[in-house]
């Protein structure tokens, strides 16, 4: 059974608003799962579907490192997070964590974590 079947991604593809973005793929969910497995304290933040992009999720680790991937629907990432026993938040309700912004700022300047 593929990731699409396991987490309901196939059912999540029902007609949505997104027109320009590609659909979520198994590799997108696998990237989020792998990120969770190799970092500590990972939390998921769900970003709603827009006209240009489908629903995405941002995985943020304790140190602020993060990745964003397409997920198809909020239900899909909720099931993944439940299986991984990781918290999942609606980004419109709680916003992004400060550590994510700090990590991004450090990496834009090319600084390491120790500087």
Number of helices: 6
Give the amount of beta strand, in percent. 15-25%
Largest sheet, in brief, is:
4 strands, mixed
Helix content: 40-55%
- Summing up helix and strand content along with how strands pair, one would put the structural category as alpha+beta
Distance between the termini: 45 Å
Radius of gyration computed on alpha carbons: 14 Å
Strand arrangement across the biggest beta sheet:
3-2-1-4
Spans where pLDDT lies below 50 across 5 or more residues: none
Number of strands: 4
**Rounded average pLDDT:** 84
Record keyword descriptors for this entry.
115 residues; alpha+beta; four-stranded mixed β-sheet; 6 helices; globular
Any chance you could write out the topology, listing elements then pairs?
Blueprint: H1 3-7, H2 9-12, H3 26-38, E1 43-47, E2 56-60, E3 66-70, H4 74-84, E4 88-90, H5 91-94, H6 98-109
Parallel strand pairs: 1-4
Antiparallel strand pairs: 1-2, 2-3
